[in-house]
């Protein structure tokens, strides 16, 4: 007897992480439906997904922060085995300028999705959270048990509040289950260079700024601070290849579908377990691409933490997932993607 095809709804599925996750699920044999308002992504991403997988996912252009639109959508689309909820704004600096826009969009969309899950008895949710909830941890590597610290931005706060909203909603019924994945720093692109990150305007994040600098779009990269308490003075992060990160969602989905979860809400760190400084990123990029990075040392960026990297033991053991691609793989793929864009 053939297994029933599993159906997954990916909100924010035309975005950076969402599109790579759509590819992973299609390749694993799932039927993928994408809901996205295209506020920070392009419809052409669907062609990219088709080019890689041979399948163009069903797409709905809807704004999930609108209660009526979301409830109408779910009236006719509700036979999902899993929902992966990515749809959210994600720029830290912008969230400081426009906090209400962030709270309204990120929290209303989550609540509307949860409401629909309750109404239509959809059991399984995977939520995209962030290592930002740990702030500057007292001990490194940071485990899932480390305390959640006061958020440094409205964006970070939406992730903390979202985790609480999910937890409270789950506590009120016994069929809803969720896995919250706390991402470290996703970088890179699909090896085909057909999908990748599409930053609008001047990028905030290190890798798109770096690749745009090397491509000649930006004059120079500013390294934000070289007086941190780290071996070379520059800040340390756990950079994870977006394809590895996308795969973690598949392991999370299988865990929920096979009822292997140990509690109705579980949290996992999704990182590599390795920390790299900004200077190490620049050096590795130069080595693997044979390109020179024009950079200068600048002041620290406000709100940045000094160092963070993940303890991934719990995710490795329980999800049976492990990051497999190297920093070099990730940086080379980011450069190949940039070359295709410019
Ligand atoms: N950096 C530079 N120059 C730049 C951009 C970044 O030196 O032009 C440095 C930053 O100071 C930091 C590192 O590169 O030390 C990484 O910065 P990113 O902006 O790429 O990433 P962040 O660690 O600040 O933020 C990321 C995600 C957020 C998430 C946060 C959690 O973008 O969504 O991790 O810590 F909330």
Task: Describe the structure in your own words.
By secondary structure, the protein is an alpha/beta fold. Helices cover 39% and strands 17% of the residues. The chain is built from eleven helices and 13 strands. The strands form four sheets. It has a seven-stranded parallel sheet with strand order 3-2-1-4-5-6-11, sandwiched between helices. The protein has a two-stranded parallel sheet with strand order 7-10. The chain has a two-stranded parallel ribbon with strand order 8-13. Helix 2 (45-53) links the parallel strand 2 and strand 3 (58-61). Helix 5 (99-119) packs parallel to helix 6. The chain is globular. The chain starts with 6 loop residues before the first strand and ends with a helix. The mean pLDDT is 96. Bound molecules: uridine-5'-diphosphate-4-deoxy-4-fluoro-alpha-D-galactose. Residues 90, 92, 130-132, 156, 185, 204-206, 209, 221-224, 235, 237, 278, 301, 304 line the site of uridine-5'-diphosphate-4-deoxy-4-fluoro-alpha-D-galactose.
